[in-house]
Amino acid sequence: MTVSTAHPATGAEGVRIVTVDHPPVNALPVQGWYDLAEAVRAAGRDPEVRCVVLAAAGRGFNAGVDIKELQRDPGNTALIGVNRACAAAFEAVYACEVPVVAAVRGFCLGGGVGLAGNADAIVAGEDAVFGLPELDRGALGAATHLARLVPQHLMRTLYYTARTVTAAELLAHGSVWRVVPVDELLDAAVELAAEIARKDGELLRLAKAALNGIDPVDVRRSYRFEQGFTFEASLSGTADRVRAGFGKEA
Questions:
Q1: CB 121 within 8 A of CB 170
Q2: 62 and 111 in contact (C-beta within 8 Å)?
Q3: Residue 19 · residue 55 · CB < 8 Å
Q4: Backbone angles phi, psi at 175, to 5 degrees
Q5: Where are the transmembrane segments (predicted)?
Q6: pLDDT digits (tens, 9 = 90+) for 82-109
């Protein structure tokens, strides 16, 4: 599993790109979420950085948690670990000292919605799809973040059905800044990040703190509340029953 931080090839001043590369589908294990959290925090702490681009290599942006890691654990250690680790990664994006632009291509599912939903802006490839397959995976969570992307009733319908929405649909809702051809995605995300990074660094940090302070929903608290129901589903055996069918669909 690789989480890397790099300067843009274009040399956009004040921009850092944090990239996740965990084949085959960027479904992260517990340590991967923590590594991502630390990379985002470190980039935000760097006084030379004024905007972070969150990107991913491979087949898609993020497919959520590593379900197989949960299946290998007969107890609740892995579930507790992934609950805490996902919360840390989502919070790192939300609380990053500077704005975060998510560059989303391909699938953005489960934890991917948690990351993108907590970003300050989203630039998406034409192939991007967003959704929460949690009910099909014996889990709950990230409705907090999906609610930042779509209206309430649509969020609930998507959550209950585990359906996805396209980048074009999110563009119509105003939650995606631009939709571009996939081969132009990183450049478009860096372009937006560079425009943001041209502002005064200290003022940007104050602006980020101010905007987080006026959010109508405390995303950290609400997500941890959701996770309590994930744990309840696990203790009751419901999660194991549903998760047992993962990967066996016709």
A1: no
A2: yes
A3: yes
A4: -95, -10
A5: none
A6: 999 999 999 999 999 999 999 999 999 9
And the tokens for 156?
A: 């609930």
DSSP secondary structure letters along the chain: -EEEEE--TT--TTEEEEEEE-TTT--B-HHHHHHHHHHHHHHHH-TT-SEEEEEE-TT-SB--B-HHHHHT-SSSHHHHHHHHHHHHHHHHHHH-SS-EEEEE-SEEETHHHHHHHHSSEEEEETT-EEE--GGGTT----HHHHTTTS-HHHHHHHHHHT-EEEHHHHHHHT--SEEE-GGGHHHHHHHHHHHHHTS-HHHHHHHHHHHHHT-SS-HHHHHHHHHHHHHHHHHHTHHHHHHTTTT---
14 within 8 A of 195, measured Cβ to Cβ: no
Residue 248 has pLDDT above 90, yes or no: no
Backbone angles phi, psi at 157, to 5 degrees: -65, -45
pLDDT per position as a tens digit, 187-242: 999 999 999 999 999 999 999 999 999 999 999 999 999 999 988 998 898 988 88
Distance spanning both ends of the chain, measured CA to CA: 29
Query: Measured between alpha carbons, how far is 7 from 26 in angstroms, rounded to an integer?
Result: 22
Q: d(Cα 232, Cα 250) in Å, to the nearest integer?
A: 28
Distance of alpha carbon 15 from alpha carbon 177, whole angstroms: 18
Question: Are the CB atoms for 19 and 8 separated by under 8 Å?
Answer: no
- The number of residues in the chain equals 250
